[in-house]
Amino acid sequence: MSRSLENASHQALLAAARAGRRDAFGKLVEGYADRVFRTCLRITNDAALADDAAQDAFIAAHQKLAEFRDEADFSTWLYRIAVNAALQLLRHRKKFREQTGTAAELQIETAASAEPSVERQMDGLLSGRRISLAMEQLTALERQAFQLRHFEEMPIREICAVLELKDSACKQAIFRAVQKLRGALQDLEVQHASR
Amino acid sequence: MHPVDDNHSRQEPEALLLFHYDELPAAEMQRMRERLASDSQLAAEYAELVAFLESVEDPHATELPDDFYGRRLAARVNEELPPESHARSPAGLDWRWLGSGLAAAMALVVVFMLGRFSAEPLVDPANEPLLVESVSPTGRQGGEQDAGQLQARLLNASLSQHLEASSRFLRQVDNANPSTTDVEAEKNWAATLLVANRLYRFAAEQAGQHRVAAVLQDMEPVLIEMANREGELSDEEFSRLRQRIQAQDLLFKVDVTSKAMTPNRKRGDSI
User: Is the pLDDT of residue B114 over 60?
Assistant: First the structure.
């Protein structure tokens, strides 16, 4: 479908949802579910929490549809609601960060003592776990801004709107995240190699 | 080290990062390309950065949703929402019509209503309210009057939706940035609204809603100009459109008319 047709269809869908059509809102949910979930995942670092946050986000969005201003970008508006929903959940739910960290380190030790072929197969998992550990070195803002830019490929101007940051603060957060990740991953590589 | 050079060297890693993400202004992107082509040390530093960033795998790659996640989530969200408070359009208009052809859907509704209207206006033009009363002040008075009131409700409901959509279009044009506006999308939207607008204007005139018809007529030049647009719009042409919208106070008229026609709105309610 051409971009212009997509825009026209989206506008019509949004108009129907704002007019109270529940099936139209349902189609919006289906269309944005993946991106909203992934945005929440970048905030919560936990898939189950992200799923709950995504649900909360869409419920909140439905309640606030009347407040949505046409001059704003709908996706940015929605992702900002999603970020707030995820942050809200984090504030209210128990976060087992220490337990997660211990489990991750255990997996790395286990992998190091395994057969070489198994160890090669676990490279992907190890890499992901190392990155998760390294991410823990970042502030929440640095982690969120970096993940939204690097993995979600969200433009910085949109990240600024979603996280309610100034342009300079957002760029600084991403830059600091990259610097810290480079340092943290280097340290983890050294630790892993020495075992 | 010279303070300026020191400051410059501190900013360079950040500039390289923004260059990688294509987040520098166009002129700076070009300057950085030229510098990378001529400065081998800078190029090596950039290559190292790119290699690092490409090695950073998504720690949540295995947790990303499957293809049916959207449907499951939509079902769960729907269960949590309060019951729908708005009745579906009595004409049975399915929202999917809006996506595939707003004009065609509206035309069906309007043709349905036009076929039911008598030649007599439903209200006295001299005392024409914007919103045709859905219930006679003295209550039910017989089948013919009830049918006329039902027709009026149908027209009001559909007109209200059309006016809301038109208001959003006008607001978008009024606030548009010529350099970033998708003119093709605006053109398609205007064309769809224009067809519906003409049908609704005819229906409103037939129903004796002359004030509503006048507002719809005021909108048409803007819709026509955008719908017939060939190619891009210059800043001057956008400015002319905005002036036309503002000179006629179009947004205000459309918004007031739309709110006054919202179904179930009680007379005397504030806008």
Answer: no
Interface test with A, best of B22, B24, B46, B58 (most A CBs within 10 A): B58
Distance CA(B204)–CA(B216), nearest Å, equals 9
Q: Find out whether B266 and B254 touch, Cβ atoms under 8 Å.
A: no
Residues 20-59 of B with CB under 8 A from A: 21, 23, 49, 52-53, 55-59
Residue spans of alpha helices (H) in chain B: 3-20, 26-38, 40-55, 69-80, 95-116, 143-174, 183-206, 210-227, 235-247, 250-260
Instruction: Supply the ipTM of this predicted assembly.
Output: 0.76
Using the predicted structure, report yes or no on whether residue B87 has a pLDDT greater than 60: no
| Cβ of residue A156 closer than 8 Å to a chain B Cβ | yes
Specify the 3-state DSSP secondary structure of B148. helix
| CB distance B106 to B100 below 8 Å | no
Share the mean pLDDT of chain A: 80
A118 confidence band (pLDDT: 50, 70, 90): very low
Three-class SS of A173-191: HHHHHHHHHHHHHHHHHHH
List all residues 6 or more positions away from A101 whose beta carbon is below 8 Å from its beta carbon: A133, A136
Q: What CA–CA distances, in Å, run from B133 to A64, A86, B59, B123, B128?
A: 30, 46, 61, 9, 10
Q: Which of A16, A51, A135 sits opposite B98 (nearest CB)?
A: A16
DSSP string, A147-165: HHHHTS---HHHHHHHHT-
d(CA B155, CA B160): 8
CA B249 to chain centroid: 19
CA pair distance A37, A86, nearest whole angstrom: 10
Q: How far is CA A22 from CA A16, B78, B96, in A?
A: 8, 8, 12
Q: Which of residues 202-231 of B touch A (CB under 8 A)?
A: none
